[in-house]
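Example for tutorial group B:
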């Protein structure tokens, strides 16, 4: 039961902190958020709530450990089978598509060469080569 109280108090503390931070971060926050006393009060309540909720959670886990120590072997077998089944279904829901679907016949992407219209242009004119007259006529 302490674990439930700890989880509830932790949730309430996080919600309080999120609400106070959201109100404080508005473009035009209310006047009470600019007061240093209220900021300190919210901080103290948040830290105290976190500390108390963590202590409740720790005692809840201690109670769970004593409960597990009292279990017999058949209980562990049933719990283990249930955990394995739950893990299998969780894995099936979150498995990557590559493990579920068959790979395509062509895994490589098709690369097209650049044509003259899509080549990058520069500010400089093409360099004159010292080749034959035929090449010089083509460049011009």
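The residue assignment follows.
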């Amino acid at each position: 039961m302490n674990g439930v109280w700890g989880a509830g108090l932790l949730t309430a503390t996080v919600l309080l902190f999120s609400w106070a931070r959201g109100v404080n971060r508005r473009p035009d926050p209310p006047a009470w958020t600019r007061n240093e006393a209220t900021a300190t009060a919210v901080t103290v309540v948040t830290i105290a709530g976190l500390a108390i909720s963590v202590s409740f959670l720790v005692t809840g886990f201690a109670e769970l450990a004593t409960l597990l120590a009292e279990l017999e072997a058949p209980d562990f077998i049933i719990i283990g089978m249930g955990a394995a089944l739950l893990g299998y279904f969780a894995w099936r829901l979150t498995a990557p598509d590559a493990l579920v679907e068959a790979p395509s016949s062509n895994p490589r992407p098709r690369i097209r060469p650049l044509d003259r219209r899509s080549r990058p242009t520069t500010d400089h004119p093409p360099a004159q080569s010292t080749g034959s007259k035929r090449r010089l006529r083509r460049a011009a």
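The mean pLDDT is 78. Compare this with the pattern of hydrophobic and polar residues in the output above.
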